[in-house]
């Protein structure tokens, strides 16, 4: 009987179409987490020269990082993740000074011209790393405004915490902290991490905090490029381990720390630390960088926009705001937009604003991958079950039509 067969066939086809349409509904309605480290958004990403954090100490001659001839064509994932377009409608860090302790900053670098103070050796950024970080904190992006930093209205005070090759030095870090305190910097970003604590370093950090600065520091150094197979035991690095310092680690697009990250405890925040684009001290080209210092720069920029938006809050209140509004995860993930716009329980309420009746709940994205995978699996299994039942019904109907006789050439066309 052809009409029933055609009806069942149409039913099967409709079931398959319904399963296909239902499949996207099993996935949470949010952006798909990135599973790789992209240079920038797009199908194939972009190839850019890498920005080193230090030069090879074994080289007899110091050869500075050359100017990049490549320019990024699109925005990288980190700026999308931090929601900088929305953030800049509320705060750009105007009126705030961020002291950056790293390899120095070139005052005339693209996107930073006129907003960098750098005396002596701090103006000679041979490595280029400090200038790269300064662009993430306060760069305008130059002729690429989509690559602006977190606080493009802030000023940078460049200070050296390393030698010319980029090797960290405790005495230089202490000297830089004292210079930043004397200059009354609002935020101090220490992009280097030292393996040992000493009294001079502790005193310099304490003085900076008493003077009203928010101190942000790298939770660990970047792992050595030529590491052995032995596991590194957890340890505390400095000045990130000092009381009141905001300790920052890097994260991948999916939220996890990169493989090989040095173990430590007491991390306050995670921020983008891989596949990040910024400029350098020479030329107007772009580089690709990553590591804990990159995450530290992003957190320092966030502290700057918070200080500009909430000038009456103490350094401790700024740190609390940054951590309380972060995305919940094993290590809370930086959210500068939420930090600027959220009204916290103890904060003074600005004119025209209403205090939240209950604690603010922020979106938890840490389990997005697992939830999406489970939802897709459930839909696929359900669709397969429906199709199997419909096929069984179709087979049963056909067999009954043939009077339960096996199908053959004589019965292929039906009765």
Q: Tags for this entry?
A:
alpha/beta; Rossmann fold; 2 domains; two-stranded antiparallel sheet; 32% helix; 10% strand
Would you mind describing this structure in some detail?
Strand 8 (276-279) and strand 9 form a beta hairpin. Helix 4 runs parallel beside helix 7 (292-309) and helix 5 packs parallel to helix 6 (199-210). This protein folds into two domains: 2-31 and 368-401; 77-222 and 232-341, 3-Layer(aba) Sandwich (Rossmann fold). The termini are close together. Mean pLDDT is 82; it is low at 1-6, 8-43, 348-373 and 410-415. Strands 2-3-1-4-5-6-7 form a seven-stranded parallel beta sheet, with helices on both faces. Strands 8-9 form a two-stranded antiparallel ribbon. It has helices spanning 2-22, 77-81, 84-87, 129-138, 170-182, 199-210, 292-309, 315-324, 336-341, 368-401, and strands spanning 97-102, 116-118, 155-160, 187-190, 214-218, 246-251, 269-272, 276-279, 286-289. With 415 residues, the chain is an alpha/beta fold. Helix content is 32%, strand content 10%.
